[in-house]
Amino acid sequence: MADDQHHHVPGTMDITDQQRTYEGFVKLTTRTVIAIIVALILLALVNA
């Protein structure tokens, strides 16, 4: 059942799409956390 014709060499796969997706995820998460912190600060100031 094993297919001996295709051998993968570790480290040779193109991962630019995965890197771009990860960078986008990190940016989105960072911006979301900053927006939540700003919203919490504004809520605290309004209710103070």
Automatic annotation (TrEMBL):
Membrane-crossing residue ranges in chain numbering: 28-46
Domain Cytochrome c oxidase subunit IV bacterial aa3 type: 6-47
UniProt-listed SUPFAM superfamilies: Bacterial aa3 type cytochrome c oxidase subunit IV
Any Pfam family: COX4_pro_2
Secretion signal, residue range per the UniProt entry: none
Gene3D superfamilies reported for this sequence: Bacterial aa3 type cytochrome c oxidase subunit IV (1.20.5.160)
This protein's UniProt keywords: Membrane, Transmembrane, Transmembrane helix
Statement: the UniProt record of this protein carries the keyword Transmembrane helix: yes
InterPro entries: Cyt-C_aa3_sf (IPR036596), Cyt_c_oxidase_su4_bac-aa3 (IPR012422)
Domain of life: Bacteria
Entry keyword annotation includes Transmembrane: yes
Protein name: Aa3-type cytochrome c oxidase subunit IV
Biological source species: Limimaricola litoreus
